[in-house]
């Protein structure tokens, strides 16, 4: 007899072998063959808006890692639970592994670009897992003629064999992960390529954009600091050679550009602040970069866009979609197919080799990374990924502001204090930032005009600072609000990110000593 505990452990080992072998084989077939990633992606596709918001706010960019670990954990728990009841006559655990493989295969086949061959690793992995489970549960491994002794020794040998399989499975998985990363990585290519020369340069960023004497974020966000938001479990690795941009739909001529074809177009450099609709009040899902690319307008022109079109549905290499008003892509704001970010080829996480960047719109309706397809269409005919998940069809950026200094709960000494933060209202631009301080008596003070860093353009944020005398010890609250260049004051009404961006004033509490 094999105990239920030993069987459960056998189930964990079998599941690990199944996952490990599948991942190792998938490393040689390519990313679309990875069932683990495909299941994770399928979960992301079906995540309702509030859960996504919660995950982003709780885990930030680590949300993908958390999901990935969660998928493995669920598989292992189910394996352990079901195999406890595995017998020769009722192969419950084996059936569960087979069922998991069916789900894995379905997820693999549902991904863009998947072929029937992509299910091979999952099927073979599940086969190995079931074989290991049957072997361990039958007790044959420990019932060899030379090993006829009974009791604890037999149990010990069984757990050693089980742990051996567990280790081998985990090792295959780790090896597969490393090999897959190495084989697919475009890091080497990216390091070797050059950006095209700049035809239309952005005006230089004057030092006056940055207020002095206060530790604010830099006006230009470094590539390493730039926030990252996307649904990609593994960062797509798309080489310039494999990249294509197909333009089709409501056009007179379909065109598919290769990367080298872009050389025929004018390169334009623009400083643009990118903002995420999921940014909560006070959040940091915003950053500014100098983007280099080609005007989307220029790329669309030879296709002959039909007059009835009002939207462009862009698709990334991993099947994510974005719906952008056609107007925003062709008007004089110069929406870009960007290939460079702050003087470097786009970092892989930010869309290498090419992405869209459109001034004035939240990223989910404009900033498709790893973009490979533009379908010229209409809002009443096509829906993009986040629009299907509860977000608005259109996402103009709302006038917002944030306090960076002091930090919530910070203590400051009596005397002169410099407060500061950022304000944004792309593409209108920020005209004023106003700050109100509430003292220990709970009485809100006057709205004070903050000093603003120089305005670069309506498409970029503005940094603000305020010199203030701290006189009364005790708890204070500082609140900020922005006024945009249309004269509109940032609304106090609080709203969450869903469906079209958070609103409300950002406040921070601090103590004067
Ligand atoms: N392919 C792809 N592009 C995408 C997304 C995505 O999930 N997949 N997310 C969008 C969202 S919601 C935002 S806010 C921006 C973020 O761009 P960043 O990661 O370069 O900051 O990318 C946009 N482009
Ligand atoms: Mo976003």
TrEMBL record:
<dbReference type="InterPro" id="IPR014756">
    <property type="entry name" value="Ig_E-set"/>
</dbReference>
<dbReference type="Pfam" id="PF00174">
    <property type="entry name" value="Oxidored_molyb"/>
</dbReference>
<dbReference type="GO" id="GO:0020037">
    <property type="term" value="F:heme binding"/>
</dbReference>
<dbReference type="InterPro" id="IPR000572">
    <property type="entry name" value="OxRdtase_Mopterin-bd_dom"/>
</dbReference>
<dbReference type="InterPro" id="IPR036374">
    <property type="entry name" value="OxRdtase_Mopterin-bd_sf"/>
</dbReference>
<dbReference type="GO" id="GO:0006790">
    <property type="term" value="P:sulfur compound metabolic process"/>
</dbReference>
<protein>
    <submittedName>
        <fullName>Oxidoreductase molybdopterin binding domain protein</fullName>
    </submittedName>
</protein>
<dbReference type="GO" id="GO:0043546">
    <property type="term" value="F:molybdopterin cofactor binding"/>
</dbReference>
<dbReference type="GO" id="GO:0008482">
    <property type="term" value="F:sulfite oxidase activity"/>
</dbReference>
């Amino acid at each position: 007899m094999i105990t239920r505990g030993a069987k459960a452990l056998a189930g964990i080992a079998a599941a690990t072998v199944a996952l490990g072998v599948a991942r190792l084989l998938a490393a040689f077939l390519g990313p679309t063959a990875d069932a683990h990633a495909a299941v994770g992606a399928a979960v992301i596709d079906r995540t309702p808006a509030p859960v996504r918001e919660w995950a982003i706010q709780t885990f930030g960019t680590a949300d993908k890692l958390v999901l990935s670990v969660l998928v493995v954990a669920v598989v292992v728990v189910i394996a352990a639970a079901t195999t406890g009841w595995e017998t020769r006559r009722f192969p419950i655990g084996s059936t569960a592994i087979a069922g998991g493989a069916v789900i894995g295969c379905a997820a693999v086949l549902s991904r863009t670009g998947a072929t029937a061959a992509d299910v091979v690793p999952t099927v073979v992995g599940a086969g190995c897992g079931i074989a290991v489970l049957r072997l361990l549960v039958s007790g044959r491994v420990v019932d060899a003629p030379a090993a006829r002794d009974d009791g604890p020794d037999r149990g010990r040998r069984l757990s050693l064999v089980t742990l051996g399989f567990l280790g081998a499975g985990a090792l295959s998985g780790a090896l597969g992960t490393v090999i897959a990363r190495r084989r697919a990585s475009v890091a080497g290519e990216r390091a070797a390529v050059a950006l095209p020369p700049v035809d239309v340069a952005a005006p230089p960023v004057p030092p006056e954009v940055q207020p002095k004497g206060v530790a604010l974020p830099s006006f230009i966000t470094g590539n390493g600091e730039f926030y990252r938001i996307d649904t990609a479990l593994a960062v797509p690795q798309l080489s310039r050679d494999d990249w294509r941009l197909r333009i089709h739909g409501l056009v007179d001529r379909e065109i598919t550009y290769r990367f080298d074809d872009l050389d025929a177009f004018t390169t334009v450099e623009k400083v643009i602040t990118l903002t995420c609709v999921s940014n909560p009040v006070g959040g940091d899902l915003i950053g500014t970069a100098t983007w280099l690319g080609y005007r989307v307008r220029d790329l669309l022109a030879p296709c002959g866009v039909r007059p009835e079109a009002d939207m462009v549905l862009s698709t990334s290499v991993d099947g994510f979609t974005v719906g952008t008003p056609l107007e925003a892509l062709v008007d004089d704001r110069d929406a870009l197919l960007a290939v460079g970010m702050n003087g470097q080829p786009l970092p892989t996480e930010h869309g290498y080799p090419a992405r869209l960047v459109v001034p004035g719109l939240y990223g989910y309706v404009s900033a498709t990374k790893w973009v490979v397809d533009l379908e010229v269409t209409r809002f009443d005919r096509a829906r993009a990924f986040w629009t299907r998940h509860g977000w608005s069809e259109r996402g103009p950026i709302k006038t917002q502001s944030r306090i960076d200094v002091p930090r919530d709960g910070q203590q400051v000494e009596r005397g002169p204090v410099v407060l500061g933060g950022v304000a944004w209202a792309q593409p209108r631009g920020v005209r004023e930032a106003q700050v109100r301080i509430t003292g220990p008596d709970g009485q809100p003070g006057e709205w004070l005009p903050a000093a603003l860093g120089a305005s670069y353009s309506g498409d970029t944020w503005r940094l603000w600072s305020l010199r203030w005398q701290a006189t009364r010890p005790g708890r204070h609250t500082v609140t900020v609000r922005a006024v945009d260049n249309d004269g509109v004051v940032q609304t106090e009404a609080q709203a969450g990110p869903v469906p079209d961006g958070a609103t409300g004033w950002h406040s921070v509490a601090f103590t004067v000593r």
